[in-house]
């Protein structure tokens, strides 16, 4: 695979993963939550938490082991997606907040 093909491939994989969040968010959402709000909450929390956990784990592994191998990188990726999915699940399952009347 050439180096010039990597960014479009990564973008395509990211878009497919984002599209996969829609059915998950709809299956997990609270009954009072709107579908678009559930999707946006789930996708944003999943992405933020997964990125933070992934970079934290790889930083920790690099400090402890040195240069991590491919297997350790995949384990960090799986752990970060699971942590992000759990955080997204918790956020989407909560009932939406109502504004207090003025």
In words, what does this structure look like?
By secondary structure, the protein is mainly α. The protein is about 75% helix and about 0% strand. It contains three helices and no strands. It has helices spanning about 5-30, 35-65, 70-95. Helix 1 (about 5-30) crosses helix 2 (about 35-65). The protein is globular, with a radius of gyration of 17 Å. The chain starts with 5 loop residues before the first helix and ends in a 9-residue tail after the last helix.
Approximate strand percentage: under 5%
Overall shape: globular
Number of helices: 3
In the predicted model, the low-confidence regions spanning at least 5 consecutive residues are none
CA radius of gyration is: 17 Å
| Main β-sheet description | none
Structural class: mainly alpha
Number of DSSP-assigned strands: 0
* SSE succession: HHH
Helical content stands at over 70%
Distance between the termini: 60 Å
Mean pLDDT over the full residue set? 86
Features:
102 residues, mainly alpha, 3 helices, 76% helix, globular
Would you kindly provide a brief summary of this structure?
With 102 residues, the chain is mostly helical. It contains three helices and no strands. It is 76% helix and 0% strand.
């Amino acid at each position: 695979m050439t180096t010039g093909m990597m960014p479009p491939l990564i973008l395509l994989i990211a878009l497919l993963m984002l599209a996969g969040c829609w059915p998950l968010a709809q299956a997990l959402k609270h009954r009072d939550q709107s579908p678009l709000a559930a999707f946006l909450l789930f996708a944003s929390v999943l992405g933020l938490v997964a990125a933070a956990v992934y970079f934290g784990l790889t930083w920790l592994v690099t400090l402890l082991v040195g240069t991590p191998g491919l297997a350790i990188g995949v384990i960090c990726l799986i752990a970060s997606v699971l942590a992000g999915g759990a955080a997204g699940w918790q956020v989407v399952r909560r009932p939406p907040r109502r504004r207090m009347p003025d």
